[in-house]
Fold:
Amino acid sequence: MSLAKHIVIIKPGSNLSSLAAIEGDYDHWIIASMTQPAQAFKVIAVDEGEPLPDPATVTAVLITGSGAMVTDGSEWIVRSAEWLRRIADKQLPVLGICFGHQLLAYALGGEVADNPNGVEVGTVDMHLTDMAETDPLFIGMSDMPVQASHRQAVMRLPPTATCLARTDMDSRHAFRYGDNLWGVQFHPEFNAAITKKYIEFYQDDLVQAGIDPLKKIEACVETVQAHTILQRFSALIGN
Structure:
């Protein structure tokens, strides 16, 4: 008997409590941006101890954002990293988002730490590298605004990984490892309303850094081009 297969979403935490008025969570926003039916996905709350599935039952993997830090070294972080290394050997499509970007980099031999440039939050300008010109997720795209919200960042990419994008505060904002694993520090699933709540969450850090949170909120715009990254990843998975 053949095993049922799913697109696995590793969900290592929920969004801000201040987002209660906005329907959904990381996994809902991601699924809504993709072309597969909702039943094709299996969401795993790894931080709550839910077990990761047999790689033989997986068709693709997405890793969401989280309030946790990769450097916490929690058991579930170590366990998830080990599982991702097994998945990497299977040549399956993988996309890590924000915390997921950092966890994937860590799992593959990169380094994650507090961003020495401080908290990056809001709608920020992302600049593509020359290597993005032929990348399946970024081909044909130009520099673009993206929604960001992170305190930690990838300080060193995994060996052989390709840097695809940078921002003024993060020089490794997107990468590809091999032909089928990607990490993006930005949130393609966020809209401007969600990002504004994250700016409010980090307002004390911003004020301390001499940045006006209200101006950050006013500068938030929708990021249509960045949103299509999930659609392109969805197309790589197929139906």
